[in-house]
């Protein structure tokens, strides 16, 4: 078999092909949620006021930053009408390291794009030097695009996000909850000690933790982009505890991370348009609202607040959202 070097016309065709690949790659990138909120799927909605809320005098929070230490102390009333107090603290250095680990930055994605473009230019030069065919260049470019896609997904996953169909980004709530289980261990031990002292059952423990996030933590929506970092509208769970506030998905992440330290807890997240809540694997009592997942019943839990809604009850607007034609998406945490 004889070999001959491709003509300059063939090289021009290769160059045009590479340019087209870069252009189409740019169009693909344009769909990614880098510019501000566009392309991000956000969730944030209060559950609204409800009757029978605990007396304001029994609910408080003290958020402090002093001497290189951040601390948060909370007082609240659980559904057994017991007054409870919990606290958590961490050094400022540990807090900054923890808080910085969540959320992605456009400039870091730009670095990945630059790597991809350099790799494509290298593939073109190699094709010219080695006299490779158009099909061989196309194959090399396709492999580079595939590797870029994997690098992008890995980077987003390391920051608590996932890339979904349509190249939009969404907070990976199950991954966030699993990643925060160990960090919430000290706070979980506090609840466990209080539960042991008062003879609580599992439903009482869930109720105590639920009262904490609903009433002691204020309701506030995080920015989708803060100091140049994309958050998806979520505060990292421990950051929320140390700041004293969060919205529906943030408070859900706090509650699920807290409860995940009990081995018997099995939980799922429920995403509906504009809202997020969760459910816990338990046998429902009469009147409890629940969803079924893989043949098992999970009792609904509404962490958002400020409504004081016990285990098995959710706000009326949440019921409407769950029953809406759009339906809901279930995400197993464990």
In brief:
The chain is an alpha+beta fold and 334 residues long. 44% of the residues lie in helices and 21% in strands. Mean pLDDT is 86; it is low at 1-13 and 27-52.
Question: Could you characterize what this model shows?
Answer:
The chain has 334 residues and is α+β, with helices and mostly antiparallel strands. The chain folds into 2 domains: 8-36 and 105-158, no CATH class; 40-102 and 172-332, no CATH class. It is built from 10 helices and 15 strands. It has helices spanning 8-30, 92-100, 106-130, 134-158, 173-180, 185-198, 202-216, 237-243, 248-259, 316-323; strands spanning 40-41, 60-66, 69-77, 83-91, 161-164, 168-171, 218-219, 225-226, 229-230, 245-246, 267-272, 275-281, 290-293, 296-301, 329-332. Strands 13-14-12-11-15 form a 5-stranded antiparallel beta sheet. Strands 1-6-5 form a 3-stranded mixed beta sheet. A 3-stranded antiparallel beta sheet has the order 2-3-4. The protein starts with 7 loop residues before the first helix and ends with a strand. Residues 1-13 and 27-52 have low confidence and may be disordered.
Layout of strands and helices, then pairs:
Layout: H1 8-30, E1 40-41, E2 60-66, E3 69-77, E4 83-91, H2 92-100, H3 106-130, H4 134-158, E5 161-164, E6 168-171, H5 173-180, H6 185-198, H7 202-216, E7 218-219, E8 225-226, E9 229-230, H8 237-243, E10 245-246, H9 248-259, E11 267-272, E12 275-281, E13 290-293, E14 296-301, H10 316-323, E15 329-332
Parallel strand pairs: 1-6, 7-10
Antiparallel strand pairs: 2-3, 3-4, 5-6, 8-9, 11-12, 11-15, 12-14, 13-14
Helix pairs in contact: 1-3, 1-4, 3-4, 5-9, 7-9, 8-9
């Amino acid at each position: 078999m004889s070999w001959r070097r491709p003509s300059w016309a063939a090289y021009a065709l290769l160059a045009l092909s590479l340019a087209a690949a870069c252009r189409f790659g740019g169009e693909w990138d344009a769909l990614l949620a880098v510019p501000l909120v566009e392309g991000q799927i956000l969730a944030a909605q209060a559950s609204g006021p409800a009757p029978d809320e605990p007396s304001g005098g029994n609910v408080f929070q003290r958020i402090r930053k002093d001497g290189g230490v951040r601390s948060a102390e909370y007082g609240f009333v659980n559904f057994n009408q017991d007054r409870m107090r919990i606290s958590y603290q961490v050094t400022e250095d540990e807090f900054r390291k923890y808080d910085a680990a969540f959320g992605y930055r456009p400039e870091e994605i730009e670095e990945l794009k630059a790597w991809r473009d350099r790799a494509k230019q290298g593939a073109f030069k190699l094709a010219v030097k080695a006299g490779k065919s158009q099909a061989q260049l196309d194959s090399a470019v396709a492999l580079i695009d595939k590797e870029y896609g994997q690098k992008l997904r890995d980077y987003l996953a390391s920051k608590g996000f996932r890339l979904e169909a349509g190249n939009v980004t969404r907070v990976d709530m199950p991954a966030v909850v699993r990643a925060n289980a160990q960090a919430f261990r000290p706070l979980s031990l506090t609840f466990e000690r209080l539960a042991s002292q008062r003879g609580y059952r599992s439903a009482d423990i869930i109720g105590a933790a639920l009262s904490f996030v609903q009433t002691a933590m204020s309701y506030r929506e995080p920015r989708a982009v803060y100091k140049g970092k994309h958050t998806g509208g979520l505060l990292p769970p421990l950051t929320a505890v140390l700041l004293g506030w969060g919205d529906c998905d943030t408070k859900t992440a706090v509650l699920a991370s807290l409860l995940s330290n009990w081995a018997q807890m099995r939980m799922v997240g429920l995403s509906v348009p504009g809202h997020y809540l969760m459910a816990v694997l338990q046998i429902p009592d009469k009147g409890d609202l629940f969803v079924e997942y893989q043949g098992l019943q999970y009792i609904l839990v509404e962490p958002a607040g400020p409504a004081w809604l016990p285990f098995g009850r959710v706000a009326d607007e949440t019921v409407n959202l769950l029953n809406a034609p759009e339906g809901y998406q279930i995400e197993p945490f464990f």
